[in-house]
Structure formats: C-alpha cells, structure tokens
Write a sequence for this structure.
C-alpha cells in the first residue's frame, strides 16, 4: 500500500508542481494518474522512489515513510518503467534487464536466468536477448523496459508514460499485455499517462489531476463516466461534446451500437 | 639538396642510435616527460572533469578557464615558472601540464555531458549510486570523447615538450635547440622529423583506441552485420 499524505512539491526555481495531495494506492491495485502536462503527475510518481523529494507531506509504503529509507535501496526495491525505456545503449538487452539484480548482488548466472525468464513473461522473443537496444523497435524496447522493472520481483511498479512514444497499434498491444501482466503478477502499480483512454483501459482507480496536482476526481472508470465531478472532468474524459455517447439503432433485427456521428461501434448482444 | 642528404646522413649515422644523447634515449626521455605531464594533468583534470560533467555545475567557469589556459604561450609560461622556481624538469612538467589540462578536461566534461540524460536518469531510478552511474553509465558512454581529449592532449605535449630543452632538460628538443645554437641545420631538421614521426605514430595508436572505445560505447552501430533491425 502506498499512501500520500498532504504531499506538496515546490521546485528550487519557485515553480509549484503539487500541493496538498492525498491518495491511498491499495496493494495489488493499479492506480492511474492522468492529467495534461503541468498537472504534477510525474512529480508525484517520482516522489515514491525519491527521484523527487517532496517539500511537504509524507509518502508511506506499507506504513513506512520513504523519507526515512536509503534512496538507493528504495529504488532497487521498486520497479520503474519510463517513457523512452532508458535502456543502457552499451549493454545487451538481457544485461539491461539484469542490471538491478546485479546491483543487488545476485550472482551473474542466476541474474541472467531470471532476466531471461522475465523477458519471456513480457513476451519478447528469445532471439532478441543478445541484441543491443538500438537494434530493437520502440515496442520491443518498451517490453524490455517493463521486464527490467519486473526483474527484481518488486512489490511496486512505477510506470511513467511507458507507452507514450510508440505508435497506436503497438500501444494497444502493450496495453493488452499490461492487463495480462497485472492479472498474473498483481503488482501495486502507479501508472502515469496523459491519455484518458489508456487510464480507463488500465486503471482500477483513475485519478484525474488538474494543474498543480489538484485532484479533480478519483474513482473507477465507471464511476467517473457515470458521475463526473465537474465540467473539467466532463471535458477531460470527453463527455462534453457528446463524445462517448453511444446510441442503439435497429437494423435488420440486430441492435447496432453507433457513436455520436452515427458510425457503427459494434453489435449489442 | 645537400641539406636533405646531410639530414639523412645525420639520421642514419650509427652514432645517433646509441648512448646518452642518442635518438633512442632522447625518444624515451621525450615519451617519459609526456607521460609524467599527462599523468600530472590528469590528477587535476579527471576529478574536475567528472565533477563538472556529472553535476553540470561550474560548466561556464570550466569553459572560460580552459579557454584562457589554451591561450597561454608555452615558452612564456616555462620561462615564468623557471623564474619563479628553478631550472629543471619540474617547472617544465608544470608548464606542459598546465597546457595539457584544457583538452583533457574538455574531453571529460563534454563526454559526460553528451550522455543522454534519460539514460542517466533511468540508471539512477534503477538504484545505481552516483559512483555507479559514473563508472557504469557515464564513463563507458563518454569514453570515445574522453579518449579524443586525451589524444589531443598527448599530441600537444609531444609537440611542445621540445621546448623543455630550452631550460636545459633532455628530450627530442635537445637536437633542435642545440642544433640551432651551433647552426647545425641537419641536426635541427633531423630532430624535427623524429618529433613528427613520433607524434604521427602515437596519434595512430589513439585513433585505434578511440575506435575501440566507440565500439564499446555503441556496439550496435559499429557492427554493420548486426545492424539490420529485427523489428
């Protein structure tokens, strides 16, 4: 369980990213922080593994304040996946995944075995294990990034727009893969994105953030769609201009679901 | 054409190839001075370069100071240091080291600076200590530029170490300074040729070293047979 207690962050240059942010991320759940740029979502995410030090409030992991923990040890115990994968260009795929294991002092052979196993889990072909990151496609690199995050079998996985830089088809594929991994591994996951579709697809809980880390609404995707808190949320999730409104049309005895433009979206059963 | 003949004669005279003022010994002295100078300069340049490159702090100061150091005339600096201290090897080494610091320092900090910040950020987020970030990420990726800096530093020292002879120490500069004193042009020319050949040889060695470092830093780009994407 991750708990934010009145967390605030003002950067040295005076910019305020977040103020008085409160949130509980239950164990084994996926919570998605969604907002446009400047909403402080990445700042909040990076506060968890102390890549950013909050200026106010506390963050607790299983009731232990992260500020009392050694940042290096803390980071090794938390999986972190970032937008451009951030792989080491001079190390092979499998060595990249083994990085954290080796940092934790696990013998090379065992670290490589474990890395191969977790690369298999994220669905990467074994012929790619000995390639270098630049020889992989964007989607494959992201899979390696996820594998690296999972290698040490952490309880917590932090994901900072991990699928933001890949094309829509690969993104959808990676999201499906992510849902499968979540079902299988049940990591406590904090996921940051600016894409509300992605938030709804992956989040058990979705936190919609306004500028400055102000929470506009917290809820399941269903709750948010059924009862948007205010006009900001309504517009952010696309309910405002009749987007997301689906109608049913009868056609040859079949009930067809159509979107706001009358385009068929599917068949109702 | 007699100058060329005389120079060739000087270079091929067996008397030049042995003894305390022979070419092998002078070359050894010259390389020895170069090594000591580069090591002395590294004591200052390496920690400073790592600090500036890793933290990004004092960057402007580093650029200004290295630029100013580069502009110092070697001979003037040596003379000044000799006047302030005494004649001997130490002032020569100090003067040469001062001039050797800028390219070394610039190679290190610009090399570290050129490493993709996202890669460094990711390494830190995985739980690398700052030392591990430097030794396992920044240094290997910066190595081609660092060796580039070392290469120009070493070449500069090899070329300017000849002025050490001006204040009475050895090295290949002896042939040039002494030759000039007694108007022995073949000796001056012969000494100059040896310096040039030595510089070219060392430069070639560094070119190979730089290529190896590049291969290490971006392995995928330097093996064309591996290059086709598997996507």
């Amino acid at each position: 369980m991750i708990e934010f207690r009145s967390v605030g962050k003002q950067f040295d240059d005076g910019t305020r990213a977040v103020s008085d942010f409160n949130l509980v991320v239950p164990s084994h759940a996926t919570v998605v922080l969604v907002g446009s740029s400047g909403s402080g979502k990445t700042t909040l995410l990076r506060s968890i593994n102390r890549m950013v030090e909050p200026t106010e409030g506390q963050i607790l992991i299983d009731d232990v304040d992260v500020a009392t923990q050694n940042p290096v040890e803390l980071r090794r115990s938390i999986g972190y996946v970032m937008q451009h994968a951030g792989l080491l260009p001079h190390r092979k795929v499998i060595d990249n995944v083994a990085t954290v294991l080796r940092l934790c002092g696990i013998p090379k052979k065992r670290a490589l075995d474990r890395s191969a196993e977790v690369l298999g889990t994220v669905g990467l072909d074994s012929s790619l294990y000995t390639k270098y990151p630049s020889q992989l496609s964007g989607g494959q690199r992201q899979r390696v990034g996820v594998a690296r995050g999972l290698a040490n079998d952490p309880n917590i996985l932090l994901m900072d727009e991990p699928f933001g830089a890949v094309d829509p088809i690969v993104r959808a594929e990676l999201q499906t893969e992510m849902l499968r991994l979540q079902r299988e591994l049940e990591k406590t996951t904090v996921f940051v994105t600016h894409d509300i579709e992605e938030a709804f697809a992956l989040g058990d809980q979705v936190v919609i953030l306004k500028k400055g880390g102000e929470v506009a609404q917290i809820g399941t995707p269903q709750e948010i769609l059924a009862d948007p808190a205010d006009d900001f949320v309504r517009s952010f999730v696309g309910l405002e201009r009749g987007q997301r409104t689906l109608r049913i049309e009868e056609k040859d005895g079949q009930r067809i679901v159509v979107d706001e433009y009358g385009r068929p979206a599917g068949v109702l059963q | 054409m007699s100058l060329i003949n005389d120079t060739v004669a000087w270079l091929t005279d067996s008397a030049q190839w042995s003894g305390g003022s022979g070419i092998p010994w002078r070359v050894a002295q010259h390389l020895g001075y170069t090594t000591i100078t580069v090591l002395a300069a590294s004591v200052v340049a390496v920690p400073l370069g790592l600090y500036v490159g890793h933290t990004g702090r004092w960057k402007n100061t580093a650029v200004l100071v290295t630029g100013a150091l580069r502009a110092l005339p070697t001979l003037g600096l040596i003379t000044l240091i000799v006047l302030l201290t005494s004649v001997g090897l130490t002032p020569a080494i100090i003067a040469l080291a001062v001039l050797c610091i800028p390219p070394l320092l610039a190679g290190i900090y610009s090399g570290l600076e050129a490493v993709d910040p996202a890669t460094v950020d990711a390494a830190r987020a995985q739980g690398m200590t700052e030392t591990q970030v430097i030794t396992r990420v920044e240094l290997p990726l910066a190595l081609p530029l660092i060796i580039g800096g070392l290469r120009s530093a070493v070449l500069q020292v090899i070329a300017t170490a000849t002025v050490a002879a001006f204040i009475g120490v050895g090295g290949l500069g002896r042939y040039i300074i002494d030759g000039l004193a007694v108007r022995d042009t073949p000796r001056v020319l012969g000494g100059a040729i040896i310096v040039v050949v030595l510089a070219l040889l060392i430069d070639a060695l560094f070119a190979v070293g730089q290529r190896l470092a590049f291969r290490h830093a971006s392995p995928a780009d330097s093996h064309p047979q591996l290059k086709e994407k598997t996507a």
